[in-house]
Amino acid sequence: MTFTTLDQLSHQDILGLEHRARKNGTAIAPSMLIGRWCPRKLWAAGQDQANALQSLALNLLGAELVIENSSALMPEPLQLSNSVRIGPLMLRFRGAAWFSGRRPLLQFRFDELELRLGPWILFKRQLPKPEPRRTPFFALIGVNPRGWLLARGRGGGLALWQCQCA
To answer: What is the CATH number of the domain that holds 17?
Structure first.
């Protein structure tokens, strides 16, 4: 099954992709995730219908997930940030991310919380490391680089992101 646009992904298609990913893995490489991703559809754990209100709210808040290569000095291959904005005010969590397993899981930890007003940092705090068994992750289901990214979070929710936030 090959999809190129978000409109071509029905909930049944997504569940089929997830079933194949669990069974066969995805062959997703870290380089395929590099980019700026905006949430487009979100499903709560166990729900068949996307939560349109939650998706709308996150889009109005300028929510984005940014995945980048980390510096050569970092042991983890990726850096991840998750942020929301209201005008020039931005709340952002940042940290390291890495792959594990065949599916794979994109595991991450947020090391820092930052509140910015335009270019000025109003508040910055280091966050404690989570216990190893509590590390958050996205179970990757599928990706079309520069198109869409589909994953299930640790809490069971499902998210469909679109690359290159407007």
So the answer is: 2.40.128
Lowest mean pLDDT among 10-14, 107-111, 126-130: 10-14
In-domain check, residue 144: yes
Distance from C-alpha of 74 to C-alpha of 138, rounded to nearest angstrom: 21
Report the run of H or E that residue 46 belongs to, with start and end.
none
Residue 5 predicted with pLDDT over 70: no
148 inside domain: yes
Least confident of 3-12, 29-38, 83-92: 3-12
Please give the tally of structural domains in the chain. 1
What pLDDT score does 102 carry?
A: 81
d(CA 121, CA 141): 35
Q: Which residues contact 1 (CB under 8 A, 6 or more apart)?
A: 13, 16, 17
Residue 7 in this model has a pLDDT that exceeds 80: no
Residue 4 lies in a domain: no
> How far, in Å, CA of 81 to CA of 126, rounded?
14
Opening angle at CA 35, ends 156 and 68, nearest 5: 90
Q: Tell me which residue of 20, 44, 65 sits closest to 153, measured CA to CA.
A: 44
